[in-house]
Amino acid sequence: MQKKNLAVNENEEEQNFLQESFSSLVAEIKSNGIDTNFACVLPGSLQRKLAVELGKSLLCESKTGEDNCESCKAWVGESHPDLIIIGSPDKPPGIKECMSLWEEISLFPVAANRRVAFLLGCDKLSLPAANSLLKLTEETPGDGLVALLMEEEKMLPTLKSRLHIFRFKLPLLKSSTDIPKNKDQFLKWLRSTSNMSTGEVALVLSGWVSTLVDEGRFDKAADIEMARVLSEKYNMSKEMLEDLIYMVLWEGYDFELLSGVLW
């Protein structure tokens, strides 16, 4: 029973940190003004939540999302006639959806003074889909606004230059920096990551790197950091990244050879 309560407390702590970081991100975006197109790097599990939260402010007459204006009254659950949300963290918008956005945003607003589009999973956009957004983000129709949400900061340089970038910052929990000391602990850690995205696992690995550096274990820190970098470069799945970490930590794999092959 004691172990179960401890696990529950750790989960509650993580959820509290997650909510705190999410609230800080929303406040940062609002304080910087959100009347221009932007991109935001954050966990996939929070992308739709962010779209709805910011949509309420963007479509509100007073920008509060809470003033009971005609636009605020038009919300039905997480839906609003002038809010467009396309794609998902695992399935980004396709080229047809991206190309149709110009027409969607150009439509006369139903309840608000503008139309707003959030695109989810944009770090996985195909090249044609990403290219189709260049004109839209540079010359958005009317007072429309476009926001690209992604787990990892992967964008065409020409697209990135058109957007203000916001980044989700998750404070590292102590449990995030505790490195498994044997295979059993590593397998236990794997089970704890079942609901994490690749980006969230990479964040935990950053905590491991910091811990190893503090302990003076620079070679191992470099190995894990290289694995994290490779996962971003080659868009590895979470499972591939975790397998790579396992080989580095427990199989004595020649990481220099592995990285040489991948590069």
UniProtKB/TrEMBL annotation:
This is DNA polymerase III gamma/tau subunits-like protein. It comes from Thermovirga lienii (strain ATCC BAA-1197 / DSM 17291 / Cas60314). It comes from the Bacteria.
